[in-house]
């Protein structure tokens, strides 16, 4: 009996040590993760965004709050609690995300995420990469300062108005239909001849087609360009987005012209 009592005493001490060690490690990990999350900052066009639930890193992926960032980019957000889905829409883009899924739908096309959308603190989080690839924004991660930098220009212009982006000056002046409506040619001006301009023309159903601007002549100190947009079906143009390549060679939106 004495041996049995000693055995159970040792067993209880051993279990206590295990529980203490497990609890201690778990608390430390949670605290460390919390600190890692709270010091990540997000800047939009140089201004810091504030969140009620902070961004964090999970499995090497930077996760950012979907609603706060997309609303800052001028996108309308709606939440369906029954289906646990979130919808983001503007004039040219419709994004559909379901919580717990590693994919989304952008303008009806399935797009894979490099991490599942998830809820933390009552907020939906998505991978930072998804934001950069589906908003036309230039998004970068500064690991040394633990900061996310988002550059996004939301200029809305009328035809003929000048837009500015860094050293660029450009316009979308007019468009015309050719080949029985199968080609839409966009005409405009740009001050630089070594900077790519990509034009995306959207209709009311958010369908779009795109083309690269080609320099065709001079107008004073500006280059004249044309862009032939080829269509495969009937198309009623509504909006033209102008994009260029960022320093990291990603397409970024630099202006919008409403037709």
TrEMBL record:
Q: Which residues form the Copper amine oxidase-like N-terminal domain?
A: 44-150
Q: Which InterPro entries match?
A: Cu_amine_oxidase-like_N, Mao_N_sf
Pfam families, per database record: Cu_amine_oxidN1
Tell me which Gene3D superfamilies the record gives: Copper amine oxidase-like, N-terminal domain
Which protein are we looking at?
Copper amine oxidase N-terminal domain-containing protein
Q: What is the lineage of its organism?
A: Bacteria, Bacillati, Bacillota, Clostridia, Eubacteriales
């Amino acid at each position: 009996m004495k041996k049995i009592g000693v055995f159970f005493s040792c067993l209880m001490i051993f279990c206590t040590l295990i529980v203490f060690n497990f609890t201690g490690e778990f608390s430390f990990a949670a605290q460390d993760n919390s600190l890692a999350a709270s010091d990540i900052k997000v800047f939009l066009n140089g201004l810091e965004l504030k969140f009620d639930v902070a961004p964090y890193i999970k499995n090497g992926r930077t996760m950012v709050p979907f609603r706060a960032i997309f609303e800052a980019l001028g996108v309308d957000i709606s939440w369906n609690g029954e289906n646990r889905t979130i919808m983001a829409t503007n004039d040219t883009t419709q994004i559909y995300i379901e919580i717990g899924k590693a994919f989304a739908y952008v303008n009806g096309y399935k797009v894979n995420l490099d991490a599942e959308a998830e809820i933390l603190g009552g907020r939906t989080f998505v991978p930072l990469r998804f934001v950069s690839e589906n908003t036309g924004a230039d998004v970068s991660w500064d690991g040394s300062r633990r900061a996310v930098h988002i550059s996004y220009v939301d200029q809305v212009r009328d035809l003929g108005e000048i837009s500015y982006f860094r050293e660029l000056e450009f316009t979308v002046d007019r468009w015309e239909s050719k080949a029985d409506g199968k080609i839409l040619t966009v005409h405009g001006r740009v001050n630089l001849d070594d900077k790519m301009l990509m034009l995306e023309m959207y209709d009311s159903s958010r369908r779009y087609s795109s083309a690269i601007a080609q320099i065709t002549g001079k107008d004073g100190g500006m280059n004249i360009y044309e862009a032939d947009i080829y269509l495969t079906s009937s198309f009623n143009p509504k909006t033209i987005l102008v994009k260029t390549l960022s320093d990291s060679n990603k397409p970024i939106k630099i202006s919008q012209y409403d037709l």
